[in-house]
Specification:
The complex is a heterodimer of chains A (258) and B (160).
Chain A lengths: L3 H6 L2 H33 L13 H28 L2 H32 L8 H20 L5 H15 L2 H11 L19 H33 L4 H21 L1
Chain B lengths: L2 H27 L10 H5 L9 E7 L5 E2 L5 E7 L4 E7 L11 E8 L4 E10 L7 H14 L16
Parallel strand pairs in B: 4-6
Antiparallel strand pairs in B: 1-3, 1-5, 2-3, 3-4, 5-6
The chains are: A mainly alpha (258), B alpha+beta (160).
């Protein structure tokens, strides 16, 4: 079996150039899907019989939590590929995924807290779901911190990848915590095995928001990875050429204006 | 695959398996301690520790909520279907606290087996329904229901 294609995929230069082509389209799709999902969810979807309008925070809370968990697998997989194939690009993806995942985890915890106050009567409890989600935030922050703990980028990447791999065990725990233990947090509304326990009028905008968050995650990860590529590859000739042509274009523009 | 890469792949799999086994064993050991609350059955049967601060969770029994006229004192019963536990509390109840819905009370169980709660939390379920649909379902439920029973109503409005 030939692994040639896989190694070409790992070229930072190839990624930088090809991502530039479809990034505008992806960003446009993200804006359209997120905006329509937000309007649909916040303005058009009916309110909940028990919770009233406060349930609408689900349209941020659930998609952010989804991507906080899925993003961890993306980060850990990128780290594992880096460990096995010594691929530079995959370590850059891992490093870029950590702050995005940390931000999404924070959003999930924060929206959960402001949702918890009117519904449960408290901002925070130490139940299994909420505590395991807090551990996820610390895992993300740990991977981020390790990137800056070493002078050598290679050592830092390896350490981050190993922490990322060890932390994957937390993801199924978060997902199943509401079933394994008695928690204040209710069980999942969206299930893999059966229909969602939500009226279709409320569920459809939620689905749109989840797709929108996946698109947003892709855009954020690509943008972050691109800047990481430029930073780490700044001594290579292709990045220098790229910067020189940009500088030249800017100088030409200024000369034309004056 | 290159033998060196294969070796590194095996190492990655080893890390994953080892951490899963270790964390799995720890969680198995702690399985009861991961619970946020005890059920009324666990408290009545004596499985829950005595005379310590604990949480009890269950469905608020229909018609069990009593309020004092001159203070914020409330009394109600929670059930897990097996046993009922009486809870007393002085304070404001959360908005979503309703008979027929789940609630969590934290406090100490006194000598009369009454939980003297210092905090009451409402626990909502994973179902979301528009009000009109819920009303229609409740009407259908009530039409079908010739005699009242202990069955949980789908939706109860406590704002009226």
């Amino acid at each position: 079996m030939s692994w040639q294609w896989f190694h070409r995929l790992g070229s930072p230069r190839w990624f930088y150039q090809s991502s530039a082509r479809w990034l505008p389209w992806l960003s446009l799709a993200t804006a359209v899907v997120l905006l329509s999902g937000l309007i649909w969810g916040l303005a058009i979807a009916p309110e909940d019989a028990k919770q009233g309008n406060s349930f609408r925070i689900i349209y941020i809370h659930v998609p952010a939590s989804f991507l906080a968990l899925a993003g961890y697998y993306i980060m850990a997989t990128a780290g594992a590929v880096g460990l096995i194939w010594k691929m530079k690009l995959s370590y850059m993806v891992m490093k870029s995924a950590a702050p995005i995942g940390a931000a999404l985890t924070f959003i999930a915890l924060f929206t959960g807290a402001i949702w918890g106050k009117p519904t449960w009567g408290t901002y925070w409890v130490w139940d299994a779901r909420i505590t395991s989600m807090l551990i996820l935030l610390f895992l993300y922050l740990g991977v981020m911190a390790l990137q800056y703990a070493y002078h050598s980028a290679d050592v830092a990447s390896k350490a981050g990848a190993i922490l990322g791999l060890v932390g994957t065990v937390n993801i199924p725990i978060i997902y199943k915590s509401v079933d394994w233990w008695y928690t204040l947090h209710q069980p999942a509304t969206i299930k893999f095995t059966s229909a969602p326990s939500m009226h279709p009028d409320m569920f459809q905008p939620l689905l749109v928001m989840i797709i929108g968050f996946y698109l947003f995650y892709a855009v954020a990860l690509i943008l972050h990875t691109r800047s990481e590529i430029l930073r780490r590859e700044r001594k290579t000739s292709w990045v220098r050429d790229l910067l020189n042509t940009k500088k030249q274009a800017k100088a030409d523009k200024q000369a034309g204006e004056s | 695959m290159h033998p060196l890469r294969k070796q590194r792949l095996q190492l990655v799999i080893l890390i994953l398996v080892a951490t899963t086994v270790v964390v799995g064993l720890v969680l198995y050991m702690l399985r009861e301690n991961g619970n946020f609350f005890y059920t009324p059955e666990q408290i009545v049967s004596g499985e829950a520790p005595q005379n310590v601060y604990l949480r009890a969770g269950g469905m608020v029994v229909d018609g069990s909520l009593k309020r004092a006229d001159d203070s914020l004192w409330v009394q109600f019963q929670i059930t897990d279907g097996l046993e009922n536990l009486t809870v007393e509390h002085t304070g404001i109840l959360p908005d979503l606290f309703t008979e027929g819905e789940a609630a969590i009370a934290s406090g100490k169980v006194d000598e009369n087996s009454v939980l003297q709660a210092t905090e009451i939390l409402a626990k909502h379920d994973e179902n979301y329904t528009p009000p009109e649909v819920a009303d229609a379902m409740n009407e259908a439920y009530e039409r079908k229901q010739e005699k009242p029973s202990g069955d949980k109503k789908f939706y109860m409005d406590n704002t009226k």
